[in-house]
Amino acid sequence: MLSQIMAITGLNLKSIPERWASSLVIVVGLAGVVAVFTALLAMAAGFDKTLSATGRTDNAIVLRGGSDTELNSGLDRDSVTLIKQAAGVRKGADGKPLASGEMIVIAELVRQGDEKNGANITVRGVDANAFALRPQLKIVQGRKFRTGLRELIVGRGVTRQFQGAEIGKTLRMRGSDWQVVGVFESGDAHDSELWADAEVAQSTFSRQGFSSVLVGLDGANGLKTLQDQLKTDPRLTVDVKGEQEYFSGQTKNFRKQIGFLAGVVTFIMALGAIFAALNTMYAAVATRAKEIATLRAIGFGGGPVLVSVMIESLVLAFVGGALGALIAYLLFNNFSVSTLGENFTQVVFAFKVTPALVLTGLVISLVIGFFGGLLPAWRAARMPVTTALRAG
Amino acid sequence: MTKTGFVFANLFRKKTRTILTLLSVIMAFLLFGLLQSVNHIFDAGADFIGATRLATQARVSFTQPIPLSMLPKIESVPGVARVAHMQWFGGVWQENTPLFVFAVDPMRQHEVYPEWVMPEAQWKAFANTRTGMVAGRILADQYGWKIGQKIPIRSNIYPQKDGSKAWAFDLVGIYDGSDENWQKQTNAVFINHEYFDEANQFSHGRTNFFMIKLADTNQAEKVSRTIDAMFENSPDETKTQTEKDFNIGFIKQIGDIGMIVRWILFAVFFTLLLVVGNTMAQSVRERIPELAVLKTLGFSDGTVLWFVLAEAGALCLFGGLVGMSIATLFGAMIEKGTGGQFALSVNGWVWMTGLATIVLMTLAVGLLPALRARRLKIVDALAGR
User: What DSSP letter does each residue of B305-357 carry, written as one string?
Assistant: First the structure.
């Protein structure tokens, strides 16, 4: 049995080059399905990766109660002082609490290749502790802003996706000019931001308070301690979240939407591809009807014939799937795009074609290949020998 | 047998092949219809919104509130008929459903937006009820709101004076749209700005947008420049654009969806081209001797070319029409299922692009086999060379 299967399968596969045109239909059809599937989910994966890389487990973010996002939040100076001095906050090298009161405002920048429509960009006013709390953030070009001056540093993602934020350029915000003096890279969502000195930003935007406070946590129980103390303080109505948890929570909607889109598109395309595969395999069986009948006549069983047709279909499907994943990888891996995040500002991220996605893509292509090959294989195995021999 | 009959007979000599090819074409056009309508939302924006209004926002970003005291200054600009204002409330319904809630001046809203249709008595009630709100038809239907009810709406931005973010408003009116397009937009809630301004903890005398009704739409450019010049170099610099540009900008915030959709469409059609093209090439190849017989019988080269092209056309046309019809049905179902929130309409424009694609597709897959059929030399073909 096994040797029969091997013999027929070998014969089938070797004859593929003679009917490459119709075999190509399966390969290209599945390459299309898998490429689209992989690319769409690579987008979701990239967004996910950027946001979940943003938070650290040893930091916590404090927002006004019920705000959900920094944009909607607001804390006055007194509250910020209370939060900074709360138990559970780690002390810095200078013995003072390691905490950064931060203020979010939104500016508009024009996307590369666009002309007039501005996209929302986060401007984050920070104090000196902001850098200590985010050690992953490095200045890669130029220098840090100087305290008290209207100077900005911009994230790498911003310079990649938007115009007018290069070093030396001037941005106009609320009637004042801001000089871009440096570019930073953090490999996370902060790459989509502009940073400035919090005090200067507050005076420019005539704000008294802050949007959030980022604090370093003191030990494993830091978060619990901080939450307990701030919750019970009658002077405060705030929410305390682990920084990583806060950022990871923002990917849910996007994941859901892209997942839905990918599901619908892949399902419809897969159906189309199954029909195409059926067509190809029926044709393959028909052109070799005589050959198959001859094999049957000299004693090969129906089973090996069926299996060999299935194998041919699966091999073609696998090649198609691998090709599709490769195309998605070459075209889209690390492809940088931006979309609207929960703060109502742009989050720049790159597509990530992960091994898990490639694997899922290959499984999908094999499933399609299986269903595309099943009926034709059945027909091949059941073909009456005499009629087939007489035909053509 | 008529020529049409002949084309059909040829198509169905290999039933399985034709049906399978047709199904592939149907799937491709189903996807085409759905994706193209998504594309339309992002590319064209809200086409039906003309340039009759301008929108003024803070230049730095529309999330930055601007002072309400600008209103009389804007209204005194020549060419401006009336000014309304809208402030984003950050509304949340029940657990976590975001709502479009704007604090507005009721009568100004009424005058600047004739597209929102509601009985005069309800507009009056809205103006006279401090805690009043009006809701769009779609929203009211979706949540079963009735006039006279008190509707609890949370704000994720503005606490009341006592620190609570749980607000409640009296539903005094439900508005409709003036036509089908505007009806689809009736998914917002308007509340009384005067009440909101007093009752909330920290925003006073500010708004996010001024919506400006023009006396003469030809003045749009000039009026917007005048307004922006008026506030230049102040802490509250403005950006004024037509309502249409404003909407397009808003949609573009979502990102490069158009590009992604175009890539998918490209992949779908490249695949389809190959599937149908292969079917056509195969069917011509098999019939070479027959085509030679046709020519022997006196059918001209041109007629034979048309036979093959018509076959390809019939496949693409039938598959295309069925696929687009299913897409239209699906789109309508999605629109109904989401209560009109996601208006995926496979409309006239999508159908036009669909028909154009059918023609292109026919030529792309049919032309080569058709030309081959036309070029056939009778002697060679009959001899199987």
Answer: HHHHHHHHHHHHHHHHHHHHHHHHHHHHHHHHHTTTSS-----HHHHHHHHHH
